Amino acid sequence: MNCFSVRRSSSETRRLVGKNEQREGKMTAIEEEERGWSKVKDDRLKSTTARTSVLRALMDDFLNEHSGGGTRLHAAASLADEATCRRLVEEGADICARCSDFSATVLHYAALNGSHGEGLITYFVSEGIDACVTDEDGLEPIHYALRVGNLGIANMLLRLRRGGPGSSGDSLLHFCVRHKLLRPAKVVLERHRWLLESTEEMGRTPLHLAAAVADVRICEWLLKEGASVTAMCGFYGGTALHHMAMNGSEGAENLVDLFLSYGADIEARTLARETPLQLGADCTVRNKNGYNLLQVCLEKNVINSARFVLDYNREQLFETCGPGGETALHVAARYCDLPTCEWLVRNGADPTVMSDDGYGIPPVQMAKFNNKWSNELVPFFEQFSDVVRETEV
């Protein structure tokens, strides 16, 4: 023992031993508590494992029962989460299988899953499933998502299909219009009003596309929602009428009447200075009432367009069309003002011509039904009737 050693008394030694014993006692209690918690954790883990096992069995039973013409993986994709689908794939489920009813894939089913669809689609696409895959009716997963109003999933699928056929940077509304999906289009616009005048890569609005595919129902709906019929395409400057003019589909002629009633300008020109007629619009088309293009313009009282049509095709001035066998002057007398009727007469319209519907109605009779300008028009046409009577005498 050197001089620097500290010599403890017996009392100090007993005190230190007592402290150590107390410390050891505390440690023993802590260890026992930890062992207790460990046992609780083990019990809970066993309970959780058992519960998971039961839930998994119930899920498997449910999938077996509700798979219908699809596989268990198809059913899981439509209602379960990604973990369930991954487990089924790991257990051997064929991720490429199609249902026997309508040849839909797991991606079609996942598009219906509003809770877990986006994660599932990411997983299935990463496993090689094409986002543009179609069922036996040619419908893609995006059609399924739109059908049930899963717009978040539909937007995701739209991004995945960019670069595919007919995508052209479409918004969801453009996609619905392009594929003539009126009901989904209404859902999309209700939630995203700003899409009404949005443009795709070619600078076309949804109305431009609707005119291009000659869908009268969608055009009418878009116009009622406030779409601009005079909006110009950002790529070449065409209006909805220009897009209709370049469309050879059946039904395009029905759009003339509709667009003109909303203020379309038949003289509107593209950046290359082309009018709808110059782009191929058939000036011999008839609307649903049988009126020619000049009569349609007069009925809608769009006189500048009427002047343009007359310069383009003078024969329409003398044609008798519509249910009443009327000429352009008959229509003008019913719907237009005095200067318009005077202009038609100066260009050769016969103010005494009779309709060829068997009743022989002259323009003056039509003028009497003109609510706005009959007081001016009736005397104008009666002067020609007086000349006829004098000539006969």
What is the topological layout?
Layout: H1 10-66, H2 72-79, H3 82-90, H4 106-110, H5 117-126, H6 141-147, H7 151-160, H8 172-178, H9 182-191, H10 206-212, H11 216-224, H12 240-245, H13 253-261, H14 293-299, H15 303-312, H16 328-335, H17 338-346, H18 363-367, H19 374-392
What would you note in describing this structure?
- There is one protein chain.
- The protein is mostly helical.
- The chain contains 19 helices and no strands.
- The protein has helices at residues 10-66, 72-79, 82-90, 106-110, 117-126, 141-147, 151-160, 172-178, 182-191, 206-212, 216-224, 240-245, 253-261, 293-299, 303-312, 328-335, 338-346, 363-367, 374-392.
- Mean pLDDT is 79; it is low at 1-28 and 387-393.
- Residues 9-22 have a biased composition (Basic and acidic residues).
- ANK repeats lie at residues 68-100, 202-234, 236-271, 324-356.
- Keywords: ANK repeat, Repeat.
- Residues 1-22 are annotated as: Disordered.
